[in-house]
Amino acid sequence: MISYSAYKVAHISCFVYLMVSVFSICILQMNALYEGQRRKNLLRLHGFASAFVLVSGFGLLARLGMTHGLPTWIYFKLAAWVFFSMSPALIKKTISPKPVLGSVLFLFPFMAFLAIYKPF
């Protein structure tokens, strides 16, 4: 059985990898360097990090005993996870990745606030 601490370390470290991949994709897209093997490697990192963030997050919920009826703050975090997971496609399809980057910079501390204080 995996402990709460192990899930928390996995969740936070995978979220850091997710943020690194999103920021890297934004910066490379702004500088027109987002193609070829670099693009493939970043998308792999993004996909694995996104999947592990989701799995470790639900593992944390199980360790907290929240298996029946999820609180509202979880739904906000899931919506943000969907946005983070879709961000490479949004960055590729938009003219400028700056709105996505601004949204990520807003959502990152908001998700941390929700995880720490669990307001609702």
Topology:
Layout: H1 4-30, H2 36-63, H3 72-93, H4 98-117
Helical percent range? Answer: over 70%
Task: Tell me, rounded to a whole number, the average pLDDT.
Answer: 91
Count of distinct structural domains: 1
In the predicted model, the low-confidence regions spanning at least 5 consecutive residues are none
Category from helices, strands and their pairing = mainly alpha
Q: How many DSSP helices?
A: 4
Element string (H = helix, E = strand): HHHH
What amount of the residues lies in strands? under 5%
Number of strands: 0
Span from first to last CA?
A: 29 Å
Radius of gyration of CA atoms, rounded to a whole number: 15 Å
Largest sheet: none
What is the overall silhouette? globular
Describe the structure in your own words.
The chain is an all-alpha fold and 120 residues long. It has one domain (4-117). The chain has four helices and no strands. The longest helix has 28 residues, at 36-63. The protein is globular. The two termini are 29 Å apart.
Quick synopsis:
The protein has 120 residues and is an all-alpha fold. It has helices at residues 4-30, 36-63, 72-93, 98-117. Helix 1 (4-30) packs antiparallel against helix 4.
